[in-house]
What we know:
The complex is a heterodimer.
Chain A: E1 10-20, H1 28-44, H2 47-53, E2 55-66, E3 71-75, H3 82-89, E4 97-103, E5 106-109, H4 122-132, H5 137-151, H6 166-177, E6 184-188, H7 196-211, E7 215-219, H8 223-229, E8 232-237, E9 240-246, H9 247-256, E10 265-267, E11 279-288, E12 303-311, E13 315-325, E14 330-335, E15 340-342, E16 345-353, E17 361-371, E18 376-387
Parallel strand pairs in A: 3-7, 3-8, 5-6, 6-7
Antiparallel strand pairs in A: 1-2, 1-4, 8-9, 10-11, 11-12, 12-16, 13-14, 13-15, 13-17, 17-18
Helix pairs in contact in A: 4-5, 4-6, 5-6
Chain B: E1 7-10, H1 21-26, H2 28-45, H3 52-71, H4 81-105, H5 110-115, H6 122-129, H7 131-148, H8 160-184, H9 187-202, H10 217-221, H11 224-237, H12 244-269, H13 272-275
Helix pairs in contact in B: 2-6, 3-4, 3-7, 4-6, 4-7, 4-8, 4-9, 4-11, 6-8, 8-11, 8-12, 11-12
Amino acid sequence: xxxxxxxxxxxxxxxxxxxxxxxxxxxxRQSIAGMGKSLVRxxxxxxxxxxxxxxxxxxxxxxxxxxxxxxxGLIGHNGAGKSTLLKILARITEPSEGTVQFVGKVxxxxxxxxxxxxxxxxxxxxxxxxxxxxxxxxxxxxxxxxIVEFAGVEQFIDTPxxxxxxxxxxxxAFAVAAHLESDILLVDEVLAVGDGEFQKKCLQRISEMARxxxxxxxxxxxxxxxxxxxxxxxxxxxxxVLADGPTRDVLQTYLHRGRDGPMSRCEWGPAExxxxxxxxxxxxxxxxxxxxxxxxxxxxxxxxxxxEYERLKSGAGSVAIRLIxxxxxxxxxxxxxxxxxxxxxxxRESCVVPGDLLNSGEYRVxxxxxxxxxxxxEAQDAxxxxxxxxxxxxxxxxxKWEGVLRPTLAWTRERLADGA
Amino acid sequence: xxxxxxxxxIRPSRGWRSLQIGELLRxxxxxxxxxxxxxxxxxxxxxxxxxWAIIQPLGTTAAFTLVFGSLAKVPSDGIPYPxxxxxxxxxxxxxxxxxxxxVGSLIGSTQLVEKxxxxxxxxxxxxxxxxxxxxxxAFVCLIAAMIYYGVVxxxxxxxxxxxxxxxxxxxxxxxxxxGAINVRFRDVRQGVPLLIxxxxxxxxxxxxxxxxxxxxxxxxxxxxxSGVVEGYRWALLxxxxxxxxxxxxxxxxxxxxxxxxxxxxxxMESSFADII
Lengths: 420, 276
């Protein structure tokens, strides 16, 4: 068959993956007991309902095609099915239904450093890891010098890797994988590796590989990197393909969509609302400064945090918000400067966080309400949202910018003397 | 990229499936590296390293000589008892280590199984092959013992090659089958030491097969290690050759062990990454 007749490098059709929960008891006695139970269930006719309840569908009929040489970003919240899809593509696990067809050899970078042994030297681990990733001895030998140079560990190549710093270790591990001679490359979250300089190198290497005509499937939470590297993105949500197309459009869909658990807006019914003697919290949300809850927010734009609550009796009190970034760092913990005093009633209180201040990433907001005795009512992680990167000042670097903040500063330059 | 046009299809597999020998051969470098890694790490971390290959059969020989040779006066077909039992123990040690290693090989490489594709059979097979260097070391010691007792090996010694292969085949079968079941039921790992212990007593290691009543001989042959151990003694120490029936039965049962073990393994393989 010629390439013209087969325009894809990867073709996924109706891919479904079911995990059975609770059935795989790792103990013979429990398993026999389980078999007994399911026998009783099937005899009493309640078997169907019970088995459906103990199943988890990681993928539900996913289909797409990827042409040769394309870089496709795979995005979605945790638990959307990205990792399962990647594991099936990498042949680590089998689908329950559906097929995957691919042309050529698949290399996977699902976890760098798999099979590294701490007692062995860097050199030994390069060969070992290469073999684990499916390279022949000759292939690794051919790339050995480039791998070591890429990782920047020339001096330590004969030292056992247990003496490496974690940065060196990860760099060496990525370097091996980055020299895989495969037609298709599956990449999962490698950008969490190493320092900024090295991340930049990794991303460059990935786009280089795509230029060589290799097909790349790139999974990342780093939306800026997906946007920069991948012309096309596929959005998975609860095991379904929710959007597939130009990355910019897919990212919009992604950012508009709430998530399980904390949503970008959160409303409580009267019964379930967190309450103490003074307050009852009714809603919290993050929206654009203009109050549009659907507009994606990028780091250059201000956004609004709004809280709605009932005051059950009159008195003094105050509202506080805590903003926590994806690494768990508390970015700020602020309350409104003047305590509210007022009669009982339904209140809305909001504040605007200015643009050009925070860095991109995933944020969580916890909301607190204090009564006059400083007793607090708190809704932890009430709201979560993504702050998208902008194209501003990228300078060829598509990894996540480092730092908690990314303010726009007013710079000045003066020439103090003539140069030589 | 000559393989660029080769299409691979991934689909759910059901029931029994083929062995995919081609895939195994394509990954032989990985197998070599896994064996090499385990040996290198073991020798780096132990004080005595390769000496352990001798200490284990030697220690058991000493115990057997005391208990069975001197106290119970078990006959040894006219061969000095220490040499008689040591010869059996050298190949038995290879077999038992291979089974134990293969059974634990999958859950001992959880990270690999969860993160990387390769034919999973590589793990138990390399666990079996890893014992060969140890066997070679023990063998050198055995030759020294033979010289000490004035036994001169002849051309029959070449028979140990197919006999060792037979032991490896049986160990691979048992190791693959139990290793696969062990991924799901960790009980297996608990039971293996007991299995090996009992197996040692139904194998003519401490006693000659000639001790068993005639009517029991076919039963003895169902244990592949009976033929291997008896064959080893004949090939190295001389004496009456083991009966053709014993050897035929042992060979056949080793092959059955292998086929059943591989079938069970392949059947369960697709779920390894999900449940390990």
